[in-house]
Description:
It is built from 13 helices and 18 strands. With 438 residues, it is an alpha/beta fold. The protein has helices at residues 16-24, 69-83, 99-111, 154-163, 168-176, 190-199, 240-247, 251-259, 275-286, 307-318, 341-352, 358-371, 409-423; strands spanning 5-10, 43-48, 51-57, 86-92, 115-120, 144-145, 177-183, 204-207, 216-222, 225-230, 262-268, 290-296, 327-329, 376-377, 380-381, 384-391, 396-401, 431-436. The strands form four sheets. Strands 8-9-10-7-11-12-13 form a seven-stranded mixed β-sheet, sandwiched between helices. It has a six-stranded mixed β-sheet with strand order 2-3-1-4-5-6, sandwiched between helices. Strands 16-17-18 form a three-stranded mixed β-sheet. The two termini are 35 Å apart. Associates with the 50S ribosomal subunit. Residues 4-169, 178-353 form the EngA-type G domain.
Amino acid sequence: MPKPLVAIVGRPNVGKSMLFNKLTGRRAAIVEDTPGVTRDRIYGDCDWNGREFELVDTGGIEPNTDSEMLQFMRRQAELAIAAADVIVMVTDVKTGVTAADQDVANMLLRSRKPVCLAVNKCDSVGPTNPDVYEFYALGLGDPIEVSAVHGHGTGDLLDWCVAHFPAPSEQEDEGEVINVAIIGKPNVGKSSLLNRILGQERVIVSNVAGTTRDAIDSYFENEFGKYRFIDTAGMRRKSKVDDAIEKYSNLRSIAAIERADVCLILIDAVEGVTEQDTKIAGLAHEAGKASIIVVNKWDLVDKDTNTMAEKTAEIRRDLSYLTYAPIIFLSALTGQRVGKLYERINAVANQSAMRITTGMLNSILEDATARVQPPTDKGRRLKIYYMTQVGVKPPHFVIFCNDARLFHFSYQRYLENQLRGVFGLEGTPIRLTIRQKG
Length: 438
Ligand code: GDP
């Protein structure tokens, strides 16, 4: 089970860095909250009453000028919203509520994530500092008075965070059932494959509420796991009308992909990859879904010992952006290798939900940049500061650097390959976001 992630956001000078150090229980090299000072540590493992979590200071790199400030803070908040289970917004009792605080608070509110409002620099113990009341105006609920310098209030803050972590059982349940979409052009064998699979299992079908065309999902459990095959509108009850509609629309594929954890991209073994296949596969790729390339109608192909290798090379060439997707050759008609799908589905679903610790990522980054130097342009070299994972399904990484323009696609590709070399990440696309220091 992944550790919950807590993100700290807030204006420069409010004491984020010091609070971060207090919470992680370590002293950082630089604790002054001077705008523009690059802090060297932005993530840390924490433990509060036996509950482990990761703490990220999204404000690790701050802009030098006021004009960039608001944009910077929005970016920081976006990152926190995308990544965190709980967000701690830090404010400063000495300066009171600023317009930037209000702006960020509004963004955080809209995200519906649990947000804890910490009012820092409440250094004296005793009755509530009257200056704290104005922070109610942010609409984030009861402010928690803290002093990052002395540490008081931090226990309340941690209690609040832990109380708002997702329940462990909820997290597990979510991961249990794998939603699978079978996608592909008309007549590639989608219905046949679905019927072949469902024919072997004890299936529970259920109507999907809220869809215009009455989609029917099929749920079953077998020795490999729990699966929900998403019906791409009437696949189980196939009619000529459905076929005709399908010819004019990728809509049903799009709707199915949206709801899927894993896409089975069907290709006709005899025809090979067509333009329409490329488009449909592209939808799964763009949506960031884990995929398996399923070459169907394998029974129709005259085979010798090289056929599979040749077909594989052909598909890799034609679907070059899907290099991460495993290929399986099967026949919906005869059932050959259909039973092998489950282990593959489990594997790619797991890979797309993988979480890699920031420590691990940065040691790989260090290795990779030592082996192949980052690019330079006109004497300026790309400097990569650190990397952190902000999301799963698909794994999403943010890399902070000195100059995004120097971060050429080829070097991104190189880093992606290094990550895949170490962690596999088979079957899943990954997202890299490059962020430039202000
Ligand atoms: P869909 O439009 O993608 O749902 O495709 P269908 O499942 O309706 O299949 C289209 C045609 O291909 C039908 O005539 C199927 O019998 C045939 N077909 C599907 N899978 C296979 C296969 O593995 N081998 C062979 N030989 N025919 C297949």
